[in-house]
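Figure 2 data, in text form.
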Amino acid sequence: MESHEAAQVRLPQLRLDELLGELQARLDAARGTRDRVHSLLEAVLSVGRELDLEQALRSIVEAAAVLVDAEYAALGVIGPDGRRLSAFHTVGVTEEEIARIGPFPEGHGILGELIREPEPLRLAKLSEHPASYGFPPNHPPMNSFLGVPIRVRDQVFGNLYLTEKRGGGQFDEEDVSVTSTLAVAAGVAIDNARLYEESRLRERWLRASAEITNSLMSGSPSAEALGLIAEQAREITGSALAAVATPMADTDSLTVEIAVGMDADAHRGLVLSLDRTLMGLAFARDALVTSTDVVHDERVSPEPPRFTGLGPAVASPIGTGEAGVRGVVLLAREAGRPPFTAKETEPLQVFAAQAALAMELAERRRDAEEIAVLKDRDRIARDLHDLAIQRLFATGMTLQSAGRFIEHSEAAERVLRAVDDLDETIKIIRSTIFGLRAREGGAGSGLRARAVRVAGEAAAALGFAPSVRMEGLLDTDVPKETADHAVAVLSEALTNIARHAHADRTEAVLATDGRELVLTVRDNGVGIAPEGRRSGLRNMAERAAELGGRLEWDCPQGPAGGGTTLVWRVPVVREPGQP
């Protein structure tokens, strides 16, 4: 009897323990759900606060890893082609491990499965999926997997990848739900960060345009404005190189006036054709020209080598429409960097158009100022002719007539000398009038244009177009006589190369620093034979000596040598005592 009563007491106690245990489990589950919802809300708020896109992506990855207790997490950004990953942000892998693994994935295997089918994907073991083909060497082991797409305005931006749930468990449906909720908040945060980034970018372009306009309208030289265009465009687009080329008068060529950034010296001063360069094509077509790899682009001539280490590039005309193209700006990024997107090139085109408008307004202003100066010169010349010369002439006639009435011989001689002085003064004034009304020579008569024409004419005999580079104020600082000699020397040097060198590459560099003009002509031919004729070299040397300069040449020997380098240098301003 006692045993039966004791059993009855124990059974209710057991049921109570079960009920209490179940209640505790439900309380723990509710507390866990509450904590998880709280963590999710914190993650959503944390992600939503970020306005910098890169930092927002980093916050999304970190929040996802914490929410589902994953050891490794990554966010892959889908590239413009919609088939590959253009960026990869990771959590749980150190920089040293990343370096040992190698390049980031491009979107093959399981990662590519989510790109092709943008729906949540949960796997107990990665290697068992048909799309899996293993990991690269030094990659940490990963088994459990959860992938969720991130959409921005109904477009798939990228995917969240989560692996190795801590404790050896598997990702469950609740993990999928939580991660999907975070992905929605991430899409909103990414969209906001993009809009903020675009607004800041537009603001930077507007500030750059205003700076260029202010520079031009304040009377700064056009070269300074071109330098501003290159610097601002390079900085805003994150490019390694920026160059600006302008058309050369009376030629079908462009010359690179400004180059800043990576290997800028290899571009500065180059003379470019319109059909074998990105800048030439942009100028000829009056349209934007892009390249994903400028080094291997078939539209770009390999000589002279100038794009080593560079990859994506874009060339935009400066100006368009009725006003015509005033130049071209080229931007290039380092190899491996993402290509230029439409969101980057569109504001670049607007910026270039506004820069061209500022250049045109500045030119109109300078033209108006020049017209005012010319009108003032005409007025001065007219006044000198109509007033000063007439009065001087009348005074001279009066003195000449009065001289007949002077009986003192010395006084009469002085009056006659005064009449002669008045005649000389009239001649000086007339010469001044002529100078005020004189005009400069026509377009295409400068040293730059003449040198380009000579190089173009030599191309037929050479069998290829020689590379031409120009530096300095050649049309301003070099006197006409010196320019005539330089053009003749360049023509003779190219002719000699065509006749004797058997070369397939030639470079001509014409440069001045305001004190000296240096013409350098290089080829990769057979060199100058020791017993060969020297008449051409003698002519060049005589021209240099006539101007107080000298000619030097070098023919390297040995397996690394070959070719000839001619250096013809003459002073721009002659020293006292020179002939």
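Caption note: Confidence is low (pLDDT under 50) at residues 26-36, 438-443, 574-579.
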